[in-house]
Amino acid sequence: MKIPLFTIGSALLLLPSGTTARNGSMKKTLTGHIDPSEVFSFVYVPFEVELGTTSIYVLQSYSAKNEGNALDLGIFDQRGTETPYGSRGWSGGFRNNFTITPSWATPGYNPGPISPGVWNVVLGPYTSVQEGIDWQLDIEMGFDAIDSYFAPDYATVNLDPLCNGVCTEDGEWLRGDLHLHTVYSDGKYTPDQQIQMALDRNLDFIFFSDHNTDTSNNIMGHYQATLAPDLLIGRAIEVTTRAGHWQAIGLDRGQLIDWRYQDNASFAAAAHEVHRSGGLVSINHPFAACAACNWGFNDWDHNDAIEVWNAEWDSTDQQAVDWWQGLLVSGKRTTAVGGSDAHSPPSLNGQPTTVVRSRGKSQAAIVEGIKAGRTYLVQGPGMDVEFDINVPSLQTTLAIGDKVDGAPASAVAILTATGFSHQKACLLNDKGYFFNTTIKDTNTVHRRIPPNSKFVRVEIRNSTSDGMLALTNPIWLL
Ligand SMILES: *[C@@H]1O[C@H](CO)[C@@H](O)[C@H](O)[C@H]1NC(C)=O
Ligand SMILES: *[C@@H]1O[C@H](CO)[C@@H](O)[C@H](O)[C@H]1NC(C)=O
Ligand SMILES: *[C@@H]1O[C@H](CO)[C@@H](O)[C@H](O)[C@H]1NC(C)=O
Ligand SMILES: *[C@@H]1O[C@H](CO)[C@@H](O)[C@H](O)[C@H]1NC(C)=O
Ligand SMILES: *[C@@H]1O[C@H](CO)[C@@H](O)[C@H](O)[C@H]1NC(C)=O
Known about the structure:
With 478 residues, this protein is mostly beta strands.
């Protein structure tokens, strides 16, 4: 049987070692022990917040830190731990202390009213030595008078208000990045650094996606207004569970998504919450080689997309592409997306870039374009792909993401690739690669499609290393 989360019984083992009011502050020290069998669970440490409290400071310390033990940190307020909406912040293993006040909080924590009641520090054992983890929390609550309150400042997620986000039926290709971090979780980039880089790298949209917190989503209005009024800054969270990471993209204002589960049903329920508010669910780096980073849910049904290309191309991305090809062959129309996962220098955002045919510059239109598979990936700026299939018998031209019903005779793939001189272009269908050629400058490749192809997609690979340089989603023919 699984060890349950801290029960009332074990909570009584906490040792409040001295509760003294000093010069308008109250300090508590709580200690406890976590058994190695509790790794990947969440341990809740309740403490009482008195009426009149206006600041909470928590300092975490524990045994064998950086020597085999790793203990994540977060906090839930008086609304309780049942739903994600009690969460007042999460910093994983990145910070050992935080402060929350009505006007200000440590990045990753939500400023706002401090209501009295039982709050819970949440400890997340990630790795443990044999002896377990001895932890201590030093909590200090202040009672100073308040002179201001935090007000969220959301970025505008619809930059085409006149046409309500849907401006062209055909759509325009917009370049972006769906996976970015900041100091609001475990990154060193500030929002303005990421935004400036996105502008320099010619992106039209970015989604900040800090781990298990909406705090960066709540402050982007200021940066958008002052730095980048034409950059679409969407709302996302990297839902960082103990059985894999997934991207909740296109969230509502203030929306939080639970991350405290390892079972399929809870993942499906959380994915449903994202869909209910019009968002997109994407499985991140499914084969990443770090503990609990790879996809452990064995559920490929409740996501719309898979991040098949995370940061610099490597063999785990190839595994993701192979898996995705298998899904396509089985008839599942999951969209392949990319994500830079840029946290800190020297990582670049927009590497890879996800390019979406979007019916407007809005979060909703980007989400719609990705769900429809109108998406391709390139390594970075200056690279562009145009891939169509001409079907003479139907007198039509299909673009990436389009579908026709019925196998058209004599369909021809037309590929124009810019920025890939001397690299290798590959055409694939459900049986695999059927045509490879070397790209000369920006020539257009025409190629008859094998009969009975279920779908056709394109890869452009480095002719020296075979690394991926571009990848399209399929055009569906059956
Ligand atoms: C209480 O705070 C005041 C103002 O910050 C300071 O001057 C004083 O020394 C503090 N007293 C104690 C006991 O810490
Ligand atoms: C609190 O966190 C900050 C930022 O991570 C760090 O610089 C500081 O050393 C920490 N304080 C203590 C007492 O560890
Ligand atoms: C999730 O579902 C898959 C497929 O039904 C199953 O193989 C797997 O054991 C499930 N995993 C968990 C943790 O429930
Ligand atoms: C085409 O290129 C792919 C990717 O590099 C390779 O796996 C495949 O073997 C090539 N096919 C042929 C016929 O050369
Ligand atoms: C292709 O691979 C070679 C060898 O790894 C590398 O030097 C070169 O920069 C790569 N080209 C591109 C466009 O990434």
